[in-house]
Specification:
N-utilizing Substance Protein B Homolog, Chain A; mainly alpha; 7 helices; globular
Length: 130
């Protein structure tokens, strides 16, 4: 599985757990039962999904600094929030992912899963973070 595909899977898991408030470990286990995943991809997915989950408050505080004046985390679309959390975590914690790659991949996820304006919004926030 490519890193791009693994990142997309991680995004979906972050989003799913945010929407459904599912147990993150149960969701990872279920994902691996249903999807053939090589060891390297499994390590990456588990690392970022658990990292986002564990550090959600810190990530949200970091993201809040870059939101427009009257915006809060709660106002963001859940899809956009999942993308931002994943990219923020990668930028701050995953050394083998260049910041530019994390930003570009977040923009691509936004283009696939969110509305037309989301990719510009996400790019603006992540560009300021990096």
């Amino acid at each position: 599985m490519s890193r791009k595909k693994a990142r997309e899977s991680a995004f979906k898991l972050v989003y799913q757990c945010e929407i459904n408030k599912d147990n993150i470990l149960d969701q990872l286990k279920q994902y691996y039962l249903e999807n053939a995943t090589d060891k390297k991809s499994k390590e990456y997915i588990s690392h970022v999904v658990l990292g986002v989950h564990t550090n959600k408050k810190e990530i949200d505080l970091g993201l809040t600094k870059f939101l427009a004046e009257k915006w809060t985390i709660n106002r963001l679309a859940k899809v956009d929030l999942a993308i931002l959390r994943l990219a923020y975590y990668e930028i701050k914690n995953i050394e083998d992912v260049p910041k530019g790659v994390a930003i570009n991949e977040a923009i691509e996820l936004a283009k696939m899963y969110s509305d037309d304006q989301a990719s510009k919004f996400i790019n603006g926030i992540l560009a300021n973070i990096s």
